[in-house]
User: Fold these one by one.
Assistant:
Number 1:
Amino acid sequence: MTRTLAALTQDLRPMGDQGIMVVFGEEISPECHREVVAAEKAVMASNLPGVTETIPAYAALYVGYDALATDFATLRDALLNLSLPQTDAETGKVWTVPICYDPEFAPDLEEVANWAGKNVDDVISAHLESLYRVYMFGFAPGYAYLGGSLPEIQVPRRDAPRQGIPKGSVMIAGPQCLMCPLVMPSGWSVIGRTPMDLLARDAMPPSPFNIGDEVRFTRISRSDYDAVTRA
Amino acid sequence: MTGRLLLDHVGPQISLQDRGRPGLMRYGIPPSGPMARICHRVLSSALGGENLTCIEASLGGLTAIWHGPPVTAAFVGGRFDIALGEQVLAPWSVFEISPGQSLKVKAGKAGAWGYLGLLGDWDVPSWQGSASAHVPSAINGAMLTSGAEIRIQNPKMIPSLKATLPVPDFAEAPTHLDIVMGPQDGFFDPETQKTLLQSPFKVSARGDRMGRRLVGERLPINGTLTMPSEALMRGAVQIAGDLQPTILLADHQTTGGYPKIATLSTASTEKFVQARPGDPIQFRAICVEEAIQSRRKLEREVVRYLAQIPTYRGSLQERLARSNLISGVINAQKDPAQTSSD
């Protein structure tokens, strides 16, 4: 069964002469995000004239266009008429991402445990339990916003951002969990490190993850981490 | 054959750029590329190429010394003061640099970004198909610093490219900025939207390749800010915690959660980048259809300008001789884009 984009939203806003922001809601939820992902797939499959790029986020899909090839009203009407698959049928890939919680890689694990009133192993178990959803990229190249942390480890951001968080660091704040694709500043709590390569220099796509995919972490030992990174 | 361009002195915010990395924003990769995209396009055309790697010069200026065989070079953008050895060049020109000669670029009387190209194969790193540095994430290099050296393989001299180009209006600093309201104008009451359109703003000294702050009356956000992060674009007029507008530019982050009260037209963005700190800014609201018309008009003007570059090549005498021979043809070609179908 299909329905048109117009059945999900009529809220299509101009972004200058370069794009249309299709707004599906104002909340961060898997349900709303599934609509964004389904709409992006439909736009990509449609080959609408003049479309230059799509950028999905939590609750809005940006559709960029070339004003020399189309115009706002033409593209808006075409988008509203797009047929979308049922969104509950939308499932992305499920990734298993290795993580090492070695103290050297997890400088904030103990602080998170203190904040949560738990021991370090409970925090690790809670972190491993969730299935995280890839909502969008932003802040830095290949930096994927994963949502779905359990309430008991939803620590607030740290007071001051720190510079030079190592590549591969896995960090949490609020309902979110992020992995550093490169050395970067961050105000989040660092609780582990993945040996996975998160940003490709030349390959396309540059990130292993796609928006709408899901991530489950699996624990590896320090010796496994060292073996993978040495290889 | 290899040449070396020694950057004896470089001011702040000067980097290597080409067209950048368009189309990768869904992966968090900013488009980067030139601040003044049209000037870069003109530079490439003037040197007989397309999407050439070049040095983007800022108001900080630069001094470069060429160690290599005679080479054809060009500078396009703004109205910088350009000196080749002792010789003063026109702000937009194609010229030859002799072995050991120095090129000095200073802020001059107008504009903020200019592009220095040299004919040859630039031996510089590339990332996802582009030589552009994205400085905030440190992908593909950093800002250029004094003492840096750029190796250029197979430097070429093509004397027939030498030219003095006029500075077109579409690349001059703006007298006003056209904006299309939204996508988050709904976060601001009508009074605040009126303030944006009616009160004067000034270009602040705070800014870089990611964005440029303006200063003026405060633009308070109505109610609490409850907006999930969404895509950002070059030209977006974002209102952050300081309640002042920031215009997002080449190296902007790909997503963000501050409301964008409006978005500059592409034509206004191209002019805005050449504004200097202290310049007055007056916004003018236009509808999206008008913005699209202005985008198309800009493209027609740029195409016409690029088509005319050959007529600016050669010495004054050569140009006069040529225009005497073919002026009738030029008059018949009011719109170069239409001639092929005539």
Number 2:
Amino acid sequence: MSMVLRGKRVRLAAIFEPGRPIKPVWFELNRRQHRVLQTTYQWQDRVGDAELLHFTVSDGEALFELIYNLKEQHWSVHAQRPETP
Amino acid sequence: MNRQILHLDMNAYFASVEQQNDPTLRGQPVGVIGSSGRTVVTTCSYEARARGVKTGMNVWQAKQCCPELILVVGDNRRYTDTSKRIVAMMRDYTPLVEVFSIDEAFLDVTSSLALFGSAERIAYLLKARIRQQFGLTCSVGIAPNKLLAKLASDMQKPDGLTIIHPERVASLLETLPIDELCGIGPRLTRQLNRLGIHSCGQLSRYPLKFLQKRYGIVGAKLQQMARGIDASPVVPVKEEAPVKSVGHSMTLREDVSSRRDIERFLLQLAEMVGRRARRYGVSGRTVHLQLRLADFDTNLGRQKTLPCPVNQSEDLYRAALEIFDTLPVDQPIRLLGICLSNLQHQAEQLPLFGPAQRQWRMTTAMDLVNNRFGDATLNFASVLNNREKGSHVISPAWRPEGVRCVDVR
């Protein structure tokens, strides 16, 4: 397994629904659109006064960690892990 | 009325979180390792345990036991956040939640039974919610006290629920090996074995005066434990006794021997300790320096008590360096630790004049920047080359809030 990305900003579509967790639907990385098939884990932490929501998602080929910075209101991809065979 | 205590123990916690995070790891032997070069297996999945892998093994030993072992670098922030959310879930059932470690907690649900029916129902509700929200399993023990609840949760792993009813305690403990009780470790077990004591039944009948002669007041406590008696309350985090010390230690990636390297690691540690002390408004008079040398067996430590309480990183650094110069260090250093004790809360004296005031203003400015942008964003120039900044290990004393809630990386 290898980590190949750190904090690259991405264009992303997500569903914000009252009373429900944020749901990433797709994101673009290197001009390719990845459709989120499964969100496997969610957690949050804080860097300084910025709260970060982490979503581990799978597009069926690889795992990605998407991070939503609640203070700056931007999305980034933190890590990419090819799925273990 | 008998108390109703639950002990909840997450099963192979770090490894299970990793298996949920990456579905391809589910059902596989997984070992979680730290990020530093000196890696040991922090914990492993049940699949790895079945193949002989144990916590604390070196990676090469673990691979010998289980060549197909998948090693995953742990993410401490994921574990601490999940733990905080599970503790919040427990507080839906009772305010009396004592966090024992990152993956264990006691709940006193005696006063919640009117609302939720029974302790067993609360246990099932918690297990179901934890499984549904995180995909994780836990073992729960229910008993009239903490000692027996912990014993009960250890009886069925993984995903167990064990109840020890008061009328079953005596028969259960009669043949139970003493080392199954929480608080009786390998050394005490060996000592008791030498006295011919192997089971709790034997310990409960052993003449008290002999135990007291040998172990003092602990002797009486041991006999009470062997009888299943434990009156200790479940203490929520906010009611815990105030912390007595604030400290950090770090196992270095490589053993260091040059004065310059030692100084920069000490400064980094002093900043970590000072920053946490300042954040929670504590200062202390006693600085303790701890070293472990390259042979792994030599531990050196000494403390120095200062004329007035300090929490400025520079003061801590100077005190630590003075202590270091008194220690007989004849080998490279593997581990360094600084601890501030003899604490006073909100006792800081603001400096009014000269260099001390400038230092205080500089520290305050650094803290403000780091509060906004994250720890170690603004740091001392001499520690910029340190590869690992911040705390990378979840201490057994970690708590979801307060001074013991150390932000890990």
